[in-house]
Amino acid sequence: MSFMTFNDVAKETGVSLQTVRTWNKQGKLPTVFKFGSQYRVSVHDFEQWIEAQKIEFKEGSGVTDVE
Fold this sequence. Notes:
Blueprint: E1 3-5, H1 6-13, H2 17-25, E2 32-35, E3 38-42, H3 43-58
Antiparallel strand pairs: 1-3, 2-3
Helix pairs in contact: 1-2
């Protein structure tokens, strides 16, 4: 299983690291694992999550924030 750091998530989504940390605190990210002091997200879970965000936005829900 491959993992992404929060920095990787920020780069892939085009948001700041602080935004990714906020999403994590709000429970908006897929399952987060902690390895020592580092938080990681499964690449597979991230890819599914990002596709779900795209689908929701395309359906015209008016959502401009992740859910």
